[in-house]
Amino acid sequence: VPARLVFDYLAPGMPRAEMERWSVDGRTIYFMAHDARGQAALWEVSAAGGRPRPLVRFTDPDRQSNRPFFAVSATTFYFAISDRQSDVFVAELRRK
Asked: How far apart are CA 61 and CA 47, in angstroms?
């Protein structure tokens, strides 16, 4: 199958696709993108080409999806809601 352009992310207003996933039927491509403020959104675009459409925008600062993954089934999106904090562990190094 020859390569073809699905959409041009360099065109004005187009999202830059990250973490692409195919739909179960192969007719849609889902992807995550971040805007200039760093807010994530889940998008879809027809595998035949066309203009991407946003599905979910994570605009609530307390409910962001910052993890680098999501999954798609025939009827459901799976993604993590999180913040950018994490636990920090400290270990002392000793010379022997």
From this structure: 31
Instruction: Read off the tokens for 39.
Output: 């807010």
- What does the alpha-carbon distance between residue 66 and residue 63 come to, in Å, rounded to a whole number? 9
Q: Categorise residue 75: left if φ over 0, alpha if ψ from -120 to 50, beta otherwise.
A: alpha
pLDDT tens column, 78-96: 877 766 666 666 656 666 6
Distances (CA, A) of 47 to 24, 40, 50, 53: 12, 21, 8, 13
Task: Return the number of other C-beta atoms located less than 10 Å from residue 10's C-beta.
Answer: 7
Q: What's CA 86's distance to the chain center, in Å?
A: 20
pTM of this prediction exceeds 0.90: no
Task: Average the pLDDT over each of 5-14, 33-42, 71-80 and give the range with the smallest value.
Answer: 71-80
What per-residue confidence (pLDDT) applies to 68? Answer: 63
